[in-house]
Amino acid sequence: MLKRVLVVMLALGLGIYVGLSLPRGAGLIATLVTLTGTQSDDYSGSKSHQAFLEMEELISNTRDMVLADARTQQEANEGMRWLLRVISMSTEVAADTNPRQPHFQRMDTLVRKVGGDNPDAEYEFAQIDGQYDYLVSGNVGTVRYLGFTINAGQGMTPRRQIGYVSGQTLTLSENGDFAFILSQKKPELSGDWIQIPKDASGILVREYIANRELEVLPTLRIEIIGEKPAFAPPSDEEIANSIIGATYAFLKLSTLHRTVLPSLLEEQNSFIRATSENLGGAISGADNLYMLGSYQIAADEAVVVTVDPPNTRYWNFTLENRWHEIGDYLHRPTSRTLENVEYSPDGSVEFLISHEDLGHPNWLDTSGHDFGFMTLRWLDSENQEVPMPIVKVVKAEAFKD
Question: pLDDT at residue 169 above 80?
């Protein structure tokens, strides 16, 4: 009996010791995974595994970048969630798409808007490969703008724009149907055609919406012309390339605040003029005139921005945080289009950027950030002399009742 009691006590003591010795949280999960068993074969030399390790290292370095570049606790906190969203988007548009079985993948979600995206728009992406010919078809719907940017460049090679068409340049049927071909050689069929190089890599679609309650989104289809590739399980190299593509997307999206007009980090409460030539045709709209700026205000301050809009079918004004991420645009006024602003008698529009709703008809919510980016998109205005916005920092109490 005594021997049995001693054995039980020894086992209990050993269990307590092991339990206290194990790490907590993610460390515990990693330890438990390690303890689940061993494998007989070593697959660590695969290209896909090496590509994953490289992406893992980049994510770790980017986490350190967020902690270094953040200027407030809120920016650091949101930066961690932003990294998850960038990983998710990069995976969906690069690793989850296939040029042999192409489809248009929605890039944003109801809560995810990263990379300086327009919240009053939808973005879609299809991965392509220059060795195939593609037919893109659909209907333009009733949105204010539909544009297709065709890019080339694969792996970690910088992307470049090699073609562009829009709802204004495509041949449309009476009810708005369209079709165009992407191929290296000119097809025998008549119709809209865009020549693509061997390293063609993707189609980025922009759909600008002025009023979501009234406008109908486009329908999009893409298919390979001719004989479809036979099914085969993805090879190690194919999966490695998809991970490399996701790594490239993550790198570009996560460093925008450092690479796209970094002067805006220091030159605050003002705007500069830019077009796709300045920003890069692979990531910006060819038909847009951009006015980009940043704001910096104290807790008791607000920013008044006055604009004189050009005569255009679409424009909008958007706020972004330090990471070029849009705030809670589903529930807060973080952007406005030409359809949901109040105009002054002279046609100008005055916006108020502040931490709280002060009753201004064109209020834009900072989402709690003292610093943020400001983006104006003027469609079809890249060659117009549009006046620069007037920016004033004021005391918020001036707008309180």
Answer: yes
